[in-house]
Every structure is written in C-alpha cells, then in structure tokens.
Predict the structure.
Amino acid sequence: MNGKLSKDEGICFAQQLFSALDFLHREGLVHGQISNKLVHYDGNAGTLKLSEWFVNTLTDFGDFAGTNFRQSIKYSAPESVVKTKLTLAKRGHEASSVAAAVTQTLGVGKTFEELDPALRKILEITTSHQPRDRPTAREVLDLLECPKNEFPQISLFSNISNVNIPENHSVRDIIEALGHNDAYYFWRLSSNGLNSELERSGLIQKTVGISKVELIPSTAKSSGYNANGAGDGNSHTQTEIDLTVLEGTLQSVDTIAANPVISIDIDQSKLSPTVRQINEERRLPLSIRESSILYQFSRTLIYRRLLSGYPHTLEGIIEELKIQTKIDIPPNLRRYIWSALLQVSGDTREMYRRINKCAIRETDRQIDVDIPRCHQYLEVIASPEGARKLKRVIKAWLVTNPGLTYWQGLDSLTVPFLVLHYDREDLAYASMSNFIPKYLNGLFQRDNAAVIQEYLAIFQQLICYHEPELANHLLDMDGQAFVPDLYAIPWFLTMFSHVFPIKKIFHLWDKLLVYDSSLPLFIAVAIMIRLKRQLMTFSFNDCILSFSDMPDIDVDDIVTQSTVLHRDTPPSCSYRVHQPDFADTSLLAIHKEDIDLQARRMERLPIISLSDVCRLNRIKSSTFIGNFTGEEFEIVDDIENLATIERLLIVDCRDEADFKTGTLPGAINLPSKTSFEDPTSEVPISTLRPSLSSIKLISARGSRIIVVAGKDTRDGQAFAERLLSLGYPKLTILHGGFNLLSSLGATLELPDLREDS
Amino acid sequence: MSSAAGSSTPTSIAAQKAYDYLFKLLLIGDSGVGKTCLLFRFAENSFNPTFISTIGIDFKIQTVEIDGKRIKLQVWDTAGQERFRTITTAYYRGAMGILLVYDVTSKKTFENITNWLKNIEEHAAEGVEQLLVANKCDQEDKRVISEEQGQLLAVHHGIDFIECSAMTGENVREAFYRMARRVKTKHESKESAQRADGSKSVKILSDPGSPLGKSLGNCC
C-alpha cells in the first residue's frame, strides 16, 4: 500500500485496517507482524487486505518454525522488542502497529501537524508510552465513528450454498462460483500440492534429511525474519497459484454437468459426454473417485445443493442425503455432510462456550496419559495445540454427560471429529455428542460389562450364522477358543477408530452414519470373512498375533460387504438389548424384558423373532395372534403361492406328539431325541438320521434361513448347535420357542402330515 | 493340566511346533507405565514412545531358550485403566507368570501395585509366579521412586524385583528371562512329581482350558 491517498480514502482505509484487526482479535488471533508490506490493495473492490495473519498462530510465534519471528522494528511497540510473544491480552501492541502503518502511508512527506486530525489523535493514543493506555482496535473504530459493524457469526454451513454457474460460463466463472474452499480443494487435486508450487516459484528449497525429505522455508533465512530487521524487502513474497491444469480439466464442464440432477432415472443417451464420463466413474474404486476432479466436482455440486438449506430443510433432504452418502462423500464436504447426518444444529458455539472445560476431574490423569499416544501420525493431533483441543473436547463431553465416563478409547473416538472440525471445537463436540448415543449406547457407562458382553456375544453368534466353518475352527483351537473378547473390544468400544488410521475411519464412518447401530456388527463379521482363508490355517497363537496389529484391509470393500450382510440378515438376529434404534416394535418382535442377558452369552446362535419369521415367509401375523388393533400387518400374500418363494425353513424340534398338536405354518418336525445318529468311532460327530424331514433340511442347507423352534430358546439352541457342528450356515433359533407363543395365546396350525406318511 | 496336543503324540507335535514349553505370561499395571513398550522392546528389540494405548488386550509371542529348552512365551498385555479391570481380570485365568509394572517417575503407579496384587490374589491361579518390574529407570532426573522402595515392596510381598528401561532396553530381556526361568522350574518340578505319580507325562503346556473358558463368555 503505497502512493498518496485523499483524506477520505485515508480514513476509510484506516477504518478497514482497524476493522480487520478487530476481527482477528475477536477470533482470538494475534497478528504480531503488522507492517505496511502486509497490507494489500484490491483495486477492483477498492478494499484493503491484511496478509500473513495466520503465521504467528500456526507457528506459535515462530517456535514451531524453528525461527524467531520479529516484527519489523519500525512498526513495533517499544516493549514488544523485548518480549517475543504477543498474547491476546497485550493486543494494544497491534493497534499501534496498524496506526504506524496507516500513518506511514497516508502521511508521506507531511509533518505530524499536517496530518488529518482524526489520524493524529489515533496516532497519539495508540503510541502512548504506557501499553495499558493504548486502545483496542474496537476502541479506535469507535473514535473513528465507525458504525458498529457486527460480524456475521460464522455458522456451520456458511460455506455451503448452491453453486450457481452462469449459462455461458467460462472456466473462471466455475472457479469463482465454487468459492475459496472448494476451489482450493480441486486445485490441490489438480496439482502436486502447495509445496511443489512454492518450490517451483523458488520460495522453498527441498533438502534431503537423514530420514526424510524436509521442506525448509527459505524465507526464514531472509532478512525479514531475522532479528536484525534490516529491511524486509524480500520476505513477504506472494506467488500466484498455477491454475492451468485445473482449468484444463474444468473446461469440459458443460451446462448439463454444471447443473447435475439428483435423480438417477434419466435417459442416459440424452446426457453429455462429460456427464456420462462422470456417471461411469461412479463404478471405479473409491480411491480413484476421490482423485478425479470432474467426479468430485459433480458430487460437490450435488451435496452443496442438498445442504444449502440445512438445518431448516433437514426433513426434506435427509432421505436423499442418505442415498447420496451410500454412494460416497466428497472429502472436502465431509464435515458438513456428517454434521447433517448427525443432525447437528442450534447455536453450538454458544453451547460449547458455556461448558466448563477447565475444571480438574479425576479422569484428567488418564486423558493426559492417553492423548500423547492417540493418532500421533496426524500432525494436527500431535501438535501441542491439537493435544489441548482434544483434551478440551473430551472434557466438554464428559461434563455434559455426567452419567457416562472416560474409557480409554474415547480419545481415539474424538479424533475424527476434531480433525474435521479443527477450527470449530464446538462442532467436533456437538457431532460426537450426537454420535455416541446412537452408535455407542451404554458403552461409556461406568460399568459397561453387560453392554460389551452382549455386543461380543452377538458378534460371535453372527460369525456362527454366516461362517459356521470359521466359527467352529476359532472356537476350538487345540482346546483354546479364540473368542471376540480377545480382539474385538476396541472395535466396538471405539467404532474401529482405535484400530484403523484416520483415512480408513472416515470411509468406514461415511457408511456407518447412514445405517442403524447394528452395522458395526456386520463390519466386524465382514472383517472375519475377509481374513477367513488365513484364519482357517492359523493356530491360536497365530490368531492372537494377527489381530494384535490390525491387518491391512481394504475398508471400502469391507464396508460394502457389511451392508450386504446387514441386508441379508433378519434384523432380529442382530438385536441387542442396548441397541437404541431397533426398529421393530410390533407385538411379535423381540422385547427387552424377554431377554436373559446371562443366558444369552452362552448361546451360540442368533435368535429370530416371530415377527421376522412372518415377514420373511410372508405369513400373516394375524395367523397367530388374531386381529389386534394397532398391530402392523406384514405383506399379505396368497398363501397358495408361497411354497416356491419361502426364504425360511422352520424346524420344529419338539417331540412328534407336541408337533402334531400344532406348529408353525410349513414347519417340518425333527425331534431332538431321534433325529441324530449316535457318534461312532468312524464318524465321531453325530450326523442327521435319514428321514423325509432331514432330506428337506439338507436340501435347504445354505440356501434358506433355518429357524429352529423348540419348547424354548434353550431347547432350540441345543438342537441348532448340533447342526452348527455339522457346518450349517444361517441357523437361527425361534425366540422363546413354543412356550413364548403359547404365552402370547397364539393359535397354531395342525401340520400337514401327508408327505411324511 | 490339559495338553495342547490332546490325545495325539506329544513329541511329534512338539517337533512340529519347534518348542518344548508354552507359557502364558501376563503384564499388568497402571496405564502409561510402559507395559506395551516393555513387551515391544522384548519381542522386537526397538522402542516407540508413541504407542497407542491398549484397549482390552494385546499379545506378543517370543521364543526363548533356557537350559537347552525352547520356550514359547505367550505374553498377554492388558489395558491399564482401572475401569477395564472387570474385563482384564478374565484374562488372568491360566496365566503362569505375572509381571507387575510401575513407572519410577510416577508415585501413583507405584502405590497402585498393592491394588494390582489384590487383583492377582482374587483372580489368578494360586502360586502364580510374580515379578515386580520398575520401568523407565533411565529417567533419573524425573525419578520419584527409588530402587530401595521398589525392592522393599517386593520383599514385603515376597516377590522378585527388577528395574529396567524399555527405552534403553536395560534389563528388559533379563526380566522376561527371569520370569520364564522361574515358571520353567516350577513347571518341571510339577512335571516330575506327576511322573513320580505315574501319570502320563505331558510335554507341551498350554494354559488350562480356553483363555476365557471353553464355553463362550463365562469369564466374568
């Protein structure tokens, strides 16, 4: 900012600069290096910009950069020459620096008396000998009679608006329309990153260190950052980012691509080649999709349109948001999409500000021990500021959840939210506050034994359900059992955030957030299936070692498979008493009161509710319990046609006499006592005794879900465990058995015995 | 004592597995005293100050040779946070040796050793070998618990004591070897007693039953 200015312009610029300073101070930032070299004039807008405002904050006043930043002496308050660090409390320094910069520019060739009186007054008070007499930037603004310009609160979604690209757009129009954040994100995808750009323009040099390549700012060596302060001509260099590659890629964005439609049911032939290309990229692996500018561009436009009205439009967009999220999430918008999926809203800043995050608590020692070991490969988390932020967010959560407590692992769980919202602790806090009740219900209670034991037991049951062969192997390894207690506790207690690096956690949670809280169980099963081939050859010792460091697995694949498992498993099979969002509340569903947690831990196979049995075999629930008012009826079909589409085979394992008095529609009878051969020396396990019913069971193996219905759950378990040892997959136990049915007053059906006779 | 080899011939399995004994050892002690680092130093001979915290349980296996016998040490590394106690005490079952670890720079971790000893009494097999391990002995300037204090506590409870440093590696091997040797001696004397009884000799030793019992979940 050089050259002469008229008086009005001068005061106007002084106002802008003090206003910039006021903004920084309100945001808790100290510039610390103000000089007129850092003031830039935007000729088009007629406004001033203050640069390098972040340098001191990023480097803790030069400490982290290994150099000692000093303000140019010309603009410094006297005492700041002695003290190297300017704290916010001493921000009076800064007003004097701004005043000096303004005066130097406006007052070229003038004596003090010739200056504008307003400016003279500011100069006088801001350069007062006593630091405490100097005004703050806000007070200077008041003197300048500057209208109180209330800065708009930076709200959660202020960066999120619909991207309006004009009809006959140029490439620059697109970049303009995207705004800084997204434009920068796409530029990064198009380039080798900021470092190589700075290197190209000679601002940094690459030197090879002993263990890695280090980047040393060459400016640190130039005079501007040296204590001698002899001229600062070269230090504040600006360089223009090269947009050629990005512009080249965005060149192909046509009007259709610039206005993507959310609905997928459109005639593909009418689409432009660019849009067809984008649509085809959807089938590529996630890592490739994430590096494709055009694809990410298209996804960004869709999400920004969806989110532009959040939170007011949540109800209208949530379903579409879920559909889109099931495809993928553009990393640049993840923080907004997650917040919307977690339904974060309200004045989170104020809410967070009011929480006492400083009070000393008994869990502090544990947190202090854990944070230096938590995701330390992430620079932001490993930094001193990162550690402070992490601790504050955890403590805020603890204060606001008095019934819950700090378990090791809560630190890992907080990190993904903090990484996304590094500049907004309040949102990290608000996000995790909504995440935990949904996906980690009960796990952070002081005594979580019941919750965790049930979780692990159901996980083990689901392995038995989907992979009986693997389950049999793991449960009997030379007399030792490789049970989930030995490897899966951190999986569920931290939603895998303790066992995967951040990038994998992001991809895993991207999908988790659109499913109910049973998905983690299926993710765990998918991991076991992925490792099955190895595990089948492993001894107990190999197993415990292999899970000691989580094997390197493709999380995207795992999650995709888990969603398939989730879809193909009757919901009641993964039912947990502590599951907060179990959807089925009908009369024939499983109810908390009917579950004996102690007994449950001993059960090898999952239970299925009568409600699921009805739904899957298309039996009217009224068949059993009459026409209760308020009871939801499942699909009503013509019973005649059902035989061919049955997905379940119901095995009534009671004695024949009981069976004949009434059973479930379509059930076959295989009495426990008579259906198995006794083990012999040749065949050491008991196999099925041949009969018409056992043939039906054998032919259903693998293709249908087998529902074993006994007198009660235990009776069914005993029978099903024998089938499990024969390697039968998809085994379930009718919850409560016939005893529960009769207690509900259900009417049973007389079996059709013609085939058996 | 059950045999890992079941009813098949123990010797052939032993040859195939290339070890004579399998011992289960347990590491317990407060969070952050360096249990995982000690184990990592022992198994990999390196040091990483930013190890992630252990949740639930972690493992390492290292084979050592003592008096011509190859001994496979299966070391169970437990979570230190007091809260995990209900979970971790389930892992005590079948442990033949327990290393109790404290940090010489933290008084609290030393004081808590008494609580850990109580846990052993309640949950571990009677007569399990115990060793009190003082870690971080390289940090002399931060030390608050002297070697004598450690020694005194060990004597008081009638257990062995060693000071070591996972960072420098000092005495780490020694600690595990000492433990292995004691378990071996005890095991061999039991074995010979059994032989004298005329009962069938069992070569390979695994912890009795499954880690958490043969059936699912009857652990706590």
